[in-house]
Specification:
By secondary structure, this protein is of the alpha/beta class. The protein has one domain: Response regulator (Rossmann fold), CATH 3.40.50. The strands form two sheets. Strands 2-1-3-6-7 form a five-stranded parallel sheet, with helices on both faces. The chain has a two-stranded antiparallel sheet with strand order 4-5. A hairpin with a 2-residue loop joins strand 4 and strand 5.
Length: about 120
């Protein structure tokens, strides 16, 4: 399993409480949250700035899908995972390393990120 200490993880999440929870979970793992971005424009700016090792993408930001963000990450070779409370059967296959079904626990997030980073 990949050590997450010191890793920078882009967080794209529109629910403030969930975003804060993810930031806390990443800190508990020794990782640093980049963002969070709560809209597609914010995600685009953080993508432009770069400097992260992986990403956690909420599948739906205020009614807008994050597939475009995922494609940009894939094109840059940045591993990512989708986080969603919806049925994940409709998620397009973008080479992502997994789906985090909300609500998720620290161990589930850590394992999914580790898999994504290991597969890079």
């Amino acid at each position: 399993m990949t050590d997450l200490a010191g890793k920078k993880i882009l967080v794209v999440e529109d629910e403030p409480i969930v975003a804060m929870m993810v930031e806390d979970m990443l800190a508990d793992l020794g990782a640093l949250a980049v963002g969070p971005a709560n809209c597609l424009a914010g995600a685009a700016q953080l993508l432009h700035d770069g400097g992260f090792d992986a990403a956690i993408l909420d599948l739906n930001l205020n009614g807008e899908g994050t597939e475009g963000v995922a494609m940009a990450l894939r094109d840059r070779g940045v591993p990512f995972i989708f986080a969603t409370g919806y049925d994940s059967s409709g998620v397009m296959n973008l080479g992502e390393s997994g789906i985090l079904q909300k609500p998720y626990r620290l161990e589930q997030m850590a394992a999914a990120l580790a898999r994504a980073l290991d597969e890079r």
